[in-house]
Amino acid sequence: MSATDIVPVILSGGTGSRLWPLSRESNPKQFWPLITDRSMVQETANRASGPGFAPPIAVVGEGHRFLVAEQLRDAGIRDPQIILEPEGRNSAPAIATAALLVAESRPDAVLWIMAADAAIKDVPALHAALELAAAAARTGRIVTFGMQPNQPHTGFGYIEMGEALAGVAGVRAVASFQEKPDLETARRLSTDGRHVWNSGMFVATAATLLQELAQHAPAVLEASRAALAASTRDLDFVRLDAKAFRKAPSISIDYAVMEKTRHAAVVPADLGWSDVGSWDALWETSPKDAQGNALHGPVELVDSSGCLVRSEGVLTAVLGLKDVVLVVTDDAVLAMPRDRAQDVKKVVEQLRAKGSKLATEHRRMYRPWGHYEGHIRGARFQVKQIVVRPGGKLSLQKHHHRAEHWVVVSGTALVQRDGESILLSENQSVYLPLGCTHRLENPGMIPLALIEVQVGSYLGEDDIVRLEDTYGRS
């Protein structure tokens, strides 16, 4: 890493509830391939890799640590540092911990802070804007990217551009920040030539960020410093101290610093940017057919226009509809007019109020060793598919209320059962009686897939007594 390398900081703590039922807390939108065949976090990391960039820092919730690590690895991102938040405290504490981590060795390093879930079509234009922003950052500025409005959007904050910065071409001082406006105000701001959308990307040196946090948000900086000082580090993970981190005020960097600092600057840019914050926004940024339909998965349309139709596996047919959103997953269906996309949160809130796990969890659940997916459940049994990545290993465990049958459908399984080692290949099976100590491992070079049949009086995931775990889970 050279002294001029920019350090990407990827904030990956959002849940994207307006993209339910695809995006849920257990697997939010940044981990889904929404526009290309790569996930949003992979697209974000790839835009910030190669010559001129240091390995990235990702700030992520504890529960998504292995998901983000696996996706970065699959994207070819080397040597990332992953900061684990014990709980979400908004963007200011996340950015503070990243700046403190970088400042341990390079306080003059330029950080490029970005959300993991934005779409950008013109990457060369992005890199050109980044070069201008980095030059301004090295003079002590905190620079944001202002997106050129193409409509009176009420879901974005606006930045009023001030005078051009002396000696840094293409960068302007920030005159003011505007909150998300009403429609009439948005119409005025989007056409006056002085306002741009706030993209939520920031560029500044670690030293500048820490200086401004100390002045304008000292409680955020103090809690973040304490959480990092008491952190534990293993593999690529920096696990922040939970007690210290919870003392940080839950506040965005916009409120904590940007609206108060005298060093805010903006690079106006036209990047084809979208925050992909709703199904309507995804329709806008997606490729469309001749009738204006954005389609994903097995979909058939007849006499329909202006629709977004996405299926995660089930053939979905649409006849005679206009400007609608239809999303089909393996356990939920969402149908609505496209102009009601901002109201999806109301569905999620209603499901939460009823205690439904569908508000937050997918049928497929990711673990550090791979994933499992429920298929059939009865009064005293359930059937799951388990996929273990090469080298993956489940915890050594036992159950008080259920027995299990494992049938290998592809790959090779190494099973420990009460001290006995059993090697299984395709079409072979093993029985794990109630109370036995057991473990599953994939010693092969391809993913291991097996069918698990559980039988017992209680089948909850909390009926697991872990005796030993490679991944440090209790």
Automatic annotation (TrEMBL):
GO molecular function term, any single one: mannose-1-phosphate guanylyltransferase (GTP) activity
- What are the boundaries of the signal sequence? none
Q: Does the keyword Manganese apply?
A: no
Q: What is this protein called?
A: mannose-1-phosphate guanylyltransferase
Q: Which residues cross the membrane?
A: none
| Positions of the Mannose-6-phosphate isomerase type II C-terminal domain | 356-469
The kind of enzyme this is, by top-level EC class, is transferase
Start and end residues of each MannoseP isomerase/GMP-like beta-helix domain: 301-351
- In terms of superkingdom, the source organism counts as Bacteria
Keywords attached to this Swiss-Prot or TrEMBL record, sorted alphabetically, are: GTP-binding, Isomerase, Nucleotide-binding, Nucleotidyltransferase, Transferase
Family designation: Belongs to the mannose-6-phosphate isomerase type 2 family.
Keyword Magnesium listed:
no
